[in-house]
Amino acid sequence: MQRIILHLDLDAFYAQCEELRNPSLKGKAVVVCVYSGRTPDSGAVGTANYEARKLGIHSGMPIAFAKKKAKPETIFLPVDIPYYKSISERIMEIAKSNSGKTETAGLDEAYLDASAIVKTFEGAEQLAKKLKKEILEQEGLTCSIGIGQNKLIAKMASDFRKPNGLTVVKPEKQKEFISGMGVKKLFGIGPKTEEALLEMGIKTIGELAVAKKEFLVESFGEKKGLQLHEFANGIDERSVENNIEKQQFSRIGTLKEDSGNFNDINPFLEKLCQELFERVSNERKLFRSVSIIAITNKLQSFTKSRTMDEPKHDPLTITEVSAELLREFLAENKGISLRRIGVRVSNLLDAGQLKKTQKTLEDF
DNA sequence: CTTCGGCTGACGG
DNA sequence: CTAACGCCGTCAGCCGAAG
Questions:
Q1: Percentage helix, strand, coil, to 5, in chain A?
Q2: pTM for the model
């Protein structure tokens, strides 16, 4: 069955939201930052608008580094996720009303399966124009949309021309569209895989497409190897899913100072546990596993986890188990110094799924 | 043999 | 002068233990 998939990508989303509530920012370079609170400039760039990108400022970059590239008039702002989320939810509603199936991928992206709504790529292009118009008129934001026969092509198409782009890649043009691109452009290929492929002399998606499947499986493992082969050939059977249940919730933060001392770290961890419980409790979830995440001063990451026999939903379990895990972790790693600490719950169960006889339901 | 828990690592937004 | 560094979530793979 031939599908028609749209990928919607809101342009420099966090920055556009900030421009929305403060129009005087328009035309200026805007950098939205995730500050860690340790020093005035420690943290990373969340989103840079296109003016800031011209200066060489990009997502993920350390703020201190971005400031070196910035002009005196460049604006640095802290992220406000709840605000962006409220805007995102309204836009996703617009998307849903234009296509039965929509799958959100973060606050700023969505896949739409328009197969039931339109029958041709020309029809899909008109739908995309309508969608862009509605988002602009109702919410004042621009986006880029890509259209293809599967999620992979749609995503690469939306990335092709932005901001405010619209790119249609018909199946017969697919190969031509992707084969000349560098392998890093392919969804699922990050810095490590790119490096490995370059060592093998594979630079472009076209070269990857003709590499032996067996060789790729041998080099990258079963799943990854097959996926590389399929994606490089434009093959992607992943369906657009309406509701994806979250598998885990986590909260992590940066300590005021590096420490390997339980008494320094645990009060901060307890705060994170309370915030985490708020979220989990709002989502009406029970959890069976608790983990801590520890990141050292050298940015090495560790996890330690514990699974209980019974699903829980109380804040005390999170704080107690995580404190226990932290104590054990520090004892097993004497001399270690932590920069960041976090807590996660997983093995989730919907509260509604619990048997009525179970006592733990009463607090809901 | 399969499944589960515990852990690491790659990746994406 | 140089290095600089968030937070959240998914999945695969490996290992050892248990079913």
A1: 45, 25, 30
A2: 0.93
Q: Any idea which nucleotide's C1' is nearest the CA of A347? A: B5
- Nucleotide with C1' nearest the A288 CA: B5
SS3 A252: strand
Is residue A109 among the annotated active site residues?
Answer: yes
Which nucleotides in chain C lie closer than 7 A to a protein CB? 3-14
Q: Indicate yes or no: strand B within 7 A of the C-beta of A192.
A: yes
Distance in Å from B3's C1' to A347's CA comes to 15
Say how far apart CA A5 and CA A50 lie, in whole Å: 27
Using a 7 Å CB cutoff, list residues 152-181 of A near strand B.
Answer: 155
Nucleotide nearest to A340 (CA to C1'): C6
* Beta-bridge mates of residue A8: A110, A145
Mind giving me the DSSP string for A207-227?
HHHTS-HHHHHHHH-HHHHHH
Residue A192 CB partners (closer than 8 Å, separation 6+): none
Residue A158 and residue A306: Cα distance in Å, rounded? 41
Q: Point out the catalytic residue in the list A73, A109, A195, A207.
A: A109
At CA A322, angle to CA A321 and CA A325, rounded to 5? 90
Distance (Å, whole) CA A159 – CA A146? 7
Q: Which two three-digit tokens encode residue A181?
A: 């691109």
| CA to C1' distance (Å), from A87 to C10 | 24
Q: Strand B: list positions under 7 Å from protein Cβ.
A: 4-13
Each residue's pLDDT expressed in tens, for chain A with a length of 364 residues = 899 999 999 999 999 999 999 999 999 999 999 999 999 999 999 999 999 999 999 999 999 999 999 999 999 999 999 999 999 999 999 999 998 799 999 999 999 999 999 999 999 999 999 999 999 999 999 999 999 999 999 999 999 999 999 999 999 999 999 999 999 999 999 999 999 999 999 999 999 999 999 999 999 999 999 999 999 999 999 999 887 889 999 999 999 999 999 999 999 999 999 999 999 999 999 999 999 999 999 999 999 999 999 999 999 999 999 999 999 999 999 999 999 999 999 999 988 765 433 444 434 3
